[in-house]
UniProtKB/TrEMBL annotation:
InterPro entries attached to this UniProt entry: Amidohydro-rel (IPR006680), Metal-dep_hydrolase_composite (IPR011059), Metal_Hydrolase (IPR032466), MTA/SAH_deaminase (IPR050287)
PANTHER family reported for this sequence: AMIDOHYDROLASE-RELATED DOMAIN-CONTAINING PROTEIN, AMINOHYDROLASE SSNA-RELATED
UniProt key word Hydrolase: yes
Keywords: Hydrolase
Organism: Spirosoma endophyticum
Protein name as catalogued: Cytosine/adenosine deaminase
Superkingdom, natural source: Bacteria
Amino acid sequence: MGNVVDAQGRESVKTILVQNGKITNVHNGKVPLSLPDLILLELADNEVVFPGLINLHVHSEYNIFPLWQSPAVWSNRYQWRNNDQYTQEIKNFKEYIESKWIQDYLGFTKPIVQSYITEKDDHLTATSIAIAVSEVQKLHGVITELQAVAGGTTLVQQTIKLENNASLPSFIVRNTGDPAELGLPFTKKVFSVVDFVRPGPDFDAPGSPIHARDDTSAWPMMRHPSFTDFLTSLQEGNSRYYASIAHLAEGRAGYLQRGKPDGFSRREFTEFRKALSQLPNPEALKTAHLTLTHACGLDYSDPDTLDFLRDNHISIVWSPVSNLILYRDTIPVKALLDHGINVCLGSDWAPSGSKHVWDELKFARYFCDAVSLDVSSAQLLAMITQNPAAALGQIKAGAIQTGYNADFFILRKQSPDQSALTALQTQYDSAVRCTIVNGRVIYGDEDLFVNTLAVDYQRIPLEEGQAAAKKVVSINSSLNFDLAKGLAQVDALMLRYATETLRLPNLRRTRLLSADDHLYQVRIKLVKSYLAELLK
C-alpha cells in the first residue's frame, strides 16, 4: 500500500495485491484485505513504487570490471576491440575470469568440488572440474546481477552463459535468455547478438590510437553467421526467434560531431537494408520484434531511414554514456521520438558505461537538458519500463497492472512533496528501499527484512562502502552462496591478475552502488565535460 507511479510519472495511492509472482489486482486507495498468509508492506509518505526497470543492453558479465581508460576517441567499435590496451586490460582479463580461475585458485574450488563428490581425492576429475567451473561462474553471475538489482533493475538482457549446455539461468533478476521469465513459451527465444556484420574477410581493423580517426568507409565487410540466422528466422515467419536484440552501426554518428559520421557504421545499415529487401517476405520484419543496439551510424537526417524504423516496428537502444566515452557522439534521440520510433535506454557495460540503467536515465536527463532537447521525464521513464517491454513484443513487464509480473522497486524521496520523477532523476541508488522480483523482496534496507519479512538474507560487506553496508540481499538458499566470501574471492582473483599481469596493483572492480563509487562519479562528471566541449 502506498504511492504508485504510473506511466506518466504521476503518483496516486494504490493497494497492489500480489499472488504467485503476479499482480492480481490494483485497487485505488488503501483497501484492507483479509487473505491467508497475507504480508502487508505499507509505504511511508516519502516512498513511491515504480515498476521494475528493464535494461535491454547490458553486458552483465563485465559489471565487476574496473573502469577502462580508453586511449583514444574512436570511429567505431572494431577499432577499440583490436586495441592492444583493450586486449590486455579487458579482453584477456575476461578470458582469465572465464577460464583460469579454476587452475589459478584451487583453494577456492577444491572445497566446492569435494562437497559434491563422495570420494575425497586430491585430483580433480573431468566431472569435478565441470562442477567447479559452474560454481565459479555462479560466483561471477550472482555478483554481476546484484549490481543491477541495487539500481532497481528487475529484467536484463541475456546474462552470461553459465553452463556448457548453454542454459542461461537467472540467479537474482530475470533475463531475456529465459523465455519463461518473459511469460513466453519455452520455444520462443529472444536472440541476443553482438554483431550482424564485421570487417573482413582477411582484414583486421587497426587498433592503434593513431588510426582512431581513419576513414573506414572502404573497409571490407562480411556477414556474421548471426545475421544469417536472423534472416532465416524471418523467412520462416519468425519461428526461430520471438525477438532479437542486435548491435548495429556502433560508431561515430555525425550528430554531435556534425558531418563526421563513421563510414563503416553507415554502410552496416545500408547492407542490412539491402539484405532484407532481397527476402521473399520482407513484411515479416514488422513482427520480428527487432531491437538495434546503439545504431549510431544510421543517417537520421534521411526521412526514409526514420520511416523504415517506424514502419517495421524496430526499436533502438540508446546508451549515451558509452557513446560519449568511446566516440564523443551519439544518436539524435529527439528526432527518433518525434518520428514515433520506440527508444529504450541501456547501460552497456562497466568499463565505459553506466552503473545500471537507472544511472543511464539520470545521464540522459542531463544530456537532453544540455542539448536543449524537449524530451519529457515521462518519456525517459518509458525508456526503461514500457518501451523495452514493447520492444520484446509487449511482454507483461514495465508497468504496474493486473496480470503483469510482480516486479517493482521502492524509492525513498527526499521529502513527501518531492515528485517521483524528480526523485528518480536526483537520488542515488542508496535511496532504494527495496527491489522486488516475482513478488519476492530480494534486496533492500535491512530493517525491512528484520521488521516485516520472514526472509533469509545476507548483509553486503562494509568493504563495499557505507551505503551498501546498510543493504542486504536475499539469495535463494538452494544456490548455497556466501556473498561476503564470494566478494572477497572475486577481489583476490582480480587483484592477482591486476598485479601479476597488468602490473596495476591498485586496480579495483567497480563497487556495487554508485553512491559508494567515487571513481565512477568522477567518470560521469568527466563525460559531462566531454559533452560541454562538444557543445561549445
